[in-house]
Each structure stands twice: as C-alpha cells, then as structure tokens.
Specification:
By secondary structure, the protein is of the alpha+beta class. The protein contains nine helices and eight strands.
C-alpha cells in the first residue's frame, strides 16, 4: 500500500459498496460474503463508516481538540475540555478517535458496522458500548459476529481495552490488508504527514508521537488463527 493510501490521502485502493461508503478493493468481496452470511442468520449487516479520508479525520480531530466537539472519558461520560491539560486532552481524544494519518479507516479495510433493523425508531446510531454489549440493540449481532467473522478474514483490533484505544465491538478489520498496512505505517511517515498539515496540537503530537505510536496505533488485539473460506 502506498504512503498516500496509508495516510488517507488517496482513493486508488477503494471501491464503492454503498452510498458514500468505500472499502478497499480486496476487502469489499470479503465483507459482502460476511453480509450474506449475516442475512441468512437474520441480520441486516451494514457499514456505518468505512474509508475515512485524512481531511475527514483531521476535521474530527480538530473539532475535538478545539472544544467544538464533546470529549468523553473512558466511561463515555462528558469531559470539560477547559479543565484538561493539553496532554490529558490528547489522551482523551486518542482513547476514542485516531490521529489523522494514523486511522485504520484510511486503509479501507476497517469498518464500523451495525444493523439498521435493530435500531429503534427515532434513535440515532451512537457507536457506543451500551448499544453493542449485553442489553443493547446490537448485542445479538455482536455475539453472532464474534462466532463468525474469522471465517471471512475479519477480526476486532479493539476487542478489549488494553491501555490505548477503547473497546470497540463495532469495529471490524480485514486482516489480510490491515496487517500489511500496519507494518508499512512507520512513525516517520505519520510525523511527516502531521507536520505538513493543519492538525491542532501539532507540536505536542510530534513530541509525544513515539508514545502515541506504541500505545494507540500498534497496541491492538493480536489476530486469531484464521480459517478463511
């Protein structure tokens, strides 16, 4: 995968799978097979978020860093940005949102999923744990995916909280592409991309980047043994 693809600054590795939803060309067929299997099991598996460009991730980041968007603590409770030091703000953002140029969504092989048929009327999708864990709208879907995604090459990089990114049961990753992409996403490439763009907190990010790289980018669930169809 080329540097521009790794950092969300190219579209050449993507294909359209739904309205405004793009996935890596080698991920899309595997997801469609997973989707068909889910349908047979009674689920309407859909992508809430697939590929995300650098510009989109930068907007998410800058809105959170500037206080335009709400920051959450590890229990999904609102934080008051003005009461946080810059380093605490940085860590709070990274717990839930990836650094621009280092989002797995840039690669097109990572996607957030849900079932619109299970979402109550007049309820917006939040992508939080209460929706996917026991007692939530998507708990049965979560359980089914846990039993079946490995057959199609997918796994959950944020299966549990390990001191970096929050647990994200909705986040699936297509291992054959993601594993190679992570190996190619070197810290120097991230630093260069951040330096050349208007990312808020740039100087602090660059100073903390070795820690960020280890704790929030490479600190993922180890991939299981796959039995891909």
């Amino acid at each position: 995968m080329l540097a521009e693809q790794l950092t969300g600054q190219a579209l050449t590795h993507l294909t359209n799978v739904a309205d405004n939803i793009y996935l890596h060309k080698k991920t899309a067929p595997a997801f469609i097979e997973l989707q068909i299997a889910a349908k047979k099991a009674g689920f309407n598996l859909q992508v809430a978020s697939g590929f995300r460009s650098f510009e989109r991730q930068q907007l998410i980041w800058n809105n959170k860093f500037s206080g335009k968007s709400q920051l959450l603590d590890k229990n999904e409770k609102p934080l008051i940005a003005e009461h946080l030091s810059d380093i605490d703000k940085l860590n709070a953002i990274l717990h839930w949102s990836a650094l621009p140029s280092a989002s797995r969504h840039h690669w097109g092989c990572d996607l957030d999923i849900y079932d619109p048929n299970l979402l109550p009327n007049d309820t917006s999708l939040q992508l939080n744990l209460s929706e996917y864990n026991k007692g939530g709208y998507f708990f049965d879907l979560t359980c089914w995916l846990s039993e079946n995604i490995h057959q199609f090459g997918f796994y959950r990089p944020y299966q549990k909280f390990s001191g970096g990114v929050a647990e994200e049961p909705w986040h699936l990753s297509y291992y054959p592409i993601a594993d190679d992409a992570l190996k190619r996403l070197e810290i120097d490439l991230i630093a260069k991309t951040i330096s050349n763009n208007n990312v808020l907190g740039k100087s602090l990010i660059l100073k903390q980047l070795p820690i960020i790289y280890k704790q929030f980018i490479c600190n993922i669930e180890q991939s299981p043994a796959f039995k891909i169809k």
